[in-house]
Specification:
Number of helices: 5
CATH class of the domain at 2-87 and 199-221: Mainly Beta
Distance between the termini: 87 Å
Strand content: 35-45%
Largest sheet: 7 strands, mixed
Shape: flat
CATH topology of the domain at 2-87 and 199-221: Immunoglobulin-like
CATH architecture of the domain at 2-87 and 199-221: Sandwich
Structural class: alpha+beta
Helix content: 10-25%
């Protein structure tokens, strides 16, 4: 019975395939919803269906589409019987005009180069033939001087001509090789790959009457995404901040997007249709490493390997510590590191361009940004800037300085109400008074109602830290050595308005009972006994100066070496 089933089923299948008419359609993307790690493509095509069943095939799609994400709306009075997808290896994705021109130029150069190589081989063979036939006359009789001279002149002249032609060919080949390399590099830069198959979606439709309808097709593809990129601008202290929200978007799907309606989203492109569950919500203090239970990385074939790829992300945990933004990366254990390297090697063989990913935290309530004007994003894996929106924010300003570490004052802007801005952590170019002052980091991962933004160094606030030699002493007391240190810090406000400034220094902390530290003077500063930090808060009017003194003594056994001053490792040239 099993064999009989196959005998009966195969003819029926073949008959069904023959009877169903097929319409192959090609249409560009109309709209793209770009996620942080994927994109939903929306295509529409108006067609006319005859009564019965019809297969509508959308062609020249991305080979990286995710089958389970396909959605089809065919209109009223039309039944969608099945939806399948496949890769077409005979019909690759459509090339851009520039890629076609570059590929034609490369083929032309390769053809000309081969011609020159053939000519050079011909000259080499002729030269070899001449070398083998230089013997004239015989063993028994000599050759007349005139004949010998004629033969020598002929060989010399011809070999000279051959060598000249070979030199010309070698020079031209070297020059054309450089052109060939540049063309190949340009093709690689444009992510051109002759072996890329195209994707196809086959939709089997049924209708009882002849009808015209618009097929609305949506599906998710991997190898596309966006990341926030900000500009922070302030004209002066006391004036509002302009926050320009931009996005770097990339398309590595194999299909160009031309004048598409673009939407940016922070939600999950492969969200399930199943009933959701809510997991326990645990609160704990930040350890510098964030735990992600649902890390996701799309493979080159579009599959979502949650369990396998959870450890593959290189986590980027950015935190603001006062004014200095520092990145802490999650380390991978040996097993996960091997898996990660294996995955990245597989990714490299599947795609021409390798995209580096990092994990960031986003709100549970996803944000969406409708981009007002259409954009064209070629499939070359390069980042393109998209304007998202602009905010004007009220801010309070303060300065911050640790002259022991940096002999500059840093300007900090503090904004409230940032929770409604749908910010995602990311880098920001900072401008103050029309001048670029550096790059900062927007870090909304805070439960506080105030977001601190760094505007870099302020050259109009002068901070100095000087060791007072008359008060720095070293004495031997019995078996102990006692060292005293005294520093004076001076803050000068050269701005036209008053400033608030936090000044910070530190007292060393002993971790050995034989080492004692005694504080002599901190000029009413606040000492944190846990970490030894000393903090002063001042309101300094325009043009005025504020001074503080920090003084302490360290006592330790005279026969022991103690490294008191902190040392920093730097790199220098070695001669």
């Amino acid at each position: 019975m099993k064999h009989l089933f196959y005998i009966l089923w195969l003819p029926v299948f073949g008959f069904a395939q023959i009877q169903n008419p097929e319409q192959r359609v090609e249409t560009p993307a109309k709209a793209v919803t770009l996620y942080l790690d994927g994109a939903e493509i929306n295509q529409q095509k108006q067609i006319t269906l005859n009564p019965g069943m019809t297969s509508v095939v959308f062609t020249n799609l991305s080979s990286k589409l995710i089958p389970k994400s396909i959605q089809v709306n065919a209109g009223e009075n039309i039944s969608v019987l099945s939806v399948t997808e496949k890769l077409n290896f005979l019909n690759s994705t459509t090339e851009t005009l520039k890629i076609k021109q570059l590929r034609d130029s490369l083929k032309d150069h390769e053809y000309k180069n081969q011609q020159m190589i053939n000519d050079r081989e011909a000259y080499e063979k002729e030269k070899e033939l001449l070398s083998k036939n230089m013997s004239i006359g015989g063993n028994d009789k000599g050759v007349a001087v005139a004949e010998l001279k004629l033969a020598a002149d002929f060989y010399r002249a011809r070999i000279k001509e051959i060598n000249a032609e070979i030199l010309k060919l070698n020079t031209k080949l070297n020059s054309d090789d450089a052109i060939t390399v540049r063309l190949q590099n340009e093709l690689e830069e444009l992510n051109a790959d002759e072996k890329k198959p195209s994707g196809e979606i086959i939709i089997l439709l049924q209708t009882d009457t002849r009808i015209s309808t618009t097929i609305d097709l949506k599906y998710v593809v991997s190898d596309a995404g966006w990341a926030p990129y900000y500009e922070l601008k302030a004209e002066d202290i006391g004036k509002p901040i302009t926050l320009v929200y931009r996005a770097r978007v990339f398309n590595n799907t194999g299909v160009n997007w031309s004048d598409v309606k673009l939407k940016l989203s922070t939600s999950d492109p492969t969200r399930s249709a199943s009933k959701p569950n809510i997991d326990p919500w645990y609160l704990n203090f930040n350890s510098g490493i964030t735990s992600y239970q649902n890390a996701r990385f799309l493979d080159g074939d579009g599959s979502n390997n949650v369990a396998q790829n959870q450890a593959y992300y290189q986590q980027s945990q950015i935190r603001t510590e006062n004014l200095e933004n520092q990145a802490a990366y999650q380390s991978l254990n040996e097993r996960d590191l091997k898996s990660y390297n294996s995955f990245k090697q597989k990714e490299k063989t599947q795609t021409g361009k390798k995209i580096v990913y990092e994990e960031v935290q986003v709100s549970e309530l996803s944000a969406e940004f409708e981009i007002k004007k259409p954009y064209s994003i070629p499939s070359d894996a390069k980042p393109y800037i998209v304007e998202v929106t602009t905010y004007s924010l009220d801010a309070t300003y303060k300065h911050y300085s640790i002259p022991k570490v940096e002999k500059d004052a840093f300007l900090l802007a503090r904004i409230t109400g940032w929770e409604d801005l749908d910010l995602i952590e990311g880098p920001a170019n900072v401008y103050f008074g029309g001048t670029y002052v550096g790059q900062s980091y927007v870090n909304p991962k805070s439960v506080n109602d105030t977001l601190d933004l760094s505007f870099g160094r302020d050259s109009k606030v002068i901070v100095t830290r000087t060791k007072l030699k008359d008060f720095n002493t070293e004495r031997l007391i019995g078996n102990n050595r006692k060292v005293s240190y005294t520093y004076e810090m001076v803050v000068k406000n050269n701005r036209k308005s008053a400033i608030q400034i936090d000044l910070e220094d530190q007292i060393p902390i002993s971790q050995n009972s034989e080492i004692t530290v005694e504080v002599q003077e901190v000029s009413k500063g606040t000492i944190n006994k846990d970490d030894g930090k000393v903090n002063w808060k001042f309101l300094i009017p325009s043009g005025e100066t504020q001074k503080v003194i920090i003084s302490y003594t360290i006592k330790y056994p005279r026969n022991r070496n103690l490294e008191i001053d902190k040392k920093y490792r730097k790199v220098r040239a070695k001669f």
